Structure formats: structure tokens, C-alpha cells
């Protein structure tokens, strides 16, 4: 499943598959597994890759919408507080707060 959900005239360079691949190493940590203070390096690398790929407003919107869909998946049972600290603990800048209730328009416009 690839989501090229671009808005506007420029097509997004990032796909939902890219986002899933980057976010996947973070899911165990976000479920509450492992040390709360130590985000796994693979998760941080995935977030850096995602941040590097999501440069345009369209890319950021696609990334946000895909992350929102992933994070809202009930069977993942993600811990909100763990999602919130991933960017800070990885020292990576993402244009929105990681949360199960992402408000994409608020952050990418």
C-alpha cells in the first residue's frame, strides 16, 4: 500500500511505505518495551531518515498522515508518553509532535 497523498501541484517525494519503514523500529519502544529513557538507535536512525526525506510541505503532510494512521492502530497499544519523547531523545527535529492524535494541518502549514 503506497500513499502518495500530495496536496497541490507537486507530488510528494515520500510514501507511506517510506514512513512505515522509518517508524517500524520505534514501535517496540512506543509499546512500552525496554528502558523508558533509552530510545533504540534504530528508532533514532529511522526518525532521522524520515526527517531528512520530509522536506516539502507535501512530504510533511504525507508523513504526518501516515504516522497518524500507524499510531492510531489499536492493536499496537502505543504509550503516548513514549511517542512524545522520541524526537527529543533522538535529537531529531520533526515538524509535528509524535502522538496518537496527530493534528497534521496544525503542524505542516
UniProtKB/TrEMBL annotation:
UniProt key word Thylakoid: no
Protein name: Non-specific lipid-transfer protein
SMART domains: AAI
Cross-referenced CDD domains: nsLTP1
GO biological process terms, semicolon-separated: lipid transport
GO molecular function: lipid binding
InterPro entries: Bifun_inhib/LTP/seed_sf, Bifunc_inhib/LTP/seed_store, Plant_nsLTP
Similarity comment text for this entry: Belongs to the plant LTP family.
Function according to Swiss-Prot or TrEMBL: Plant non-specific lipid-transfer proteins transfer phospholipids as well as galactolipids across membranes. May play a role in wax or cutin deposition in the cell walls of expanding epidermal cells and certain secretory tissues.
Residue stretches making up the Bifunctional inhibitor/plant lipid transfer protein/seed storage helical domain: 16-104
Keyword Transport assigned: yes
Keyword tags: Disulfide bond, Lipid-binding, Transport
Amino acid at each position: 500500500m503506497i500513499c502518495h497523498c500530495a496536496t497541490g501541484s507537486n507530488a510528494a517525494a515520500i510514501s507511506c511505505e517510506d514512513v512505515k519503514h522509518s517508524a517500524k523500529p520505534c514501535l517496540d519502544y512506543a509499546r512500552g518495551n525496554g528502558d523508558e529513557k533509552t530510545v533504540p538507535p534504530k528508532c533514532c536512525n529511522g526518525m532521522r531518515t524520515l526527517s531528512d526525506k520530509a522536506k516539502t510541505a507535501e512530504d510533511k503532510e504525507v508523513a504526518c498522515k501516515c504516522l497518524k494512521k500507524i499510531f492510531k492502530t489499536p492493536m499496537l497499544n502505543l504509550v503516548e508518553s513514549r511517542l512524545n519523547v522520541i524526537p527529543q531523545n533522538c535529537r531529531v527535529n520533526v515538524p509535528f509532535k509524535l502522538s496518537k492524535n496527530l493534528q497534521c494541518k496544525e503542524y505542516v502549514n
